[in-house]
Write a structure and sequence with these properties.
globular, 4 helices, two-stranded antiparallel ribbon, 50% helix, mainly alpha
């Protein structure tokens, strides 16, 4: 039987920076919502040029604090 992991645990195991679309799918919200929350400083993010990315470990920590 497989072990059920929490969403923060699942996100933390991702080995690459997440795009807004990937994070939106995981959180079951729209991409626009992810961008708005990131712009407001509610979701931890970083920029590479004009692209917004999300560190899986930082997002998992953020989710655990909620």
């Amino acid at each position: 039987m497989s072990e059920v992991q929490s969403l923060p645990d699942q996100i933390e195991r991702i080995g690459h920076a997440l795009t807004a679309a990937e994070l939106a799918e995981l959180l079951a919200v729209s991409r626009i919502t992810v961008f708005k929350q990131a712009k407001a400083g509610r979701i931890p993010c970083f920029r590479i040029g004009t692209c917004v990315r999300f560190d899986p470990r930082a997002v998992a920590t953020w989710l655990r604090r909620m």
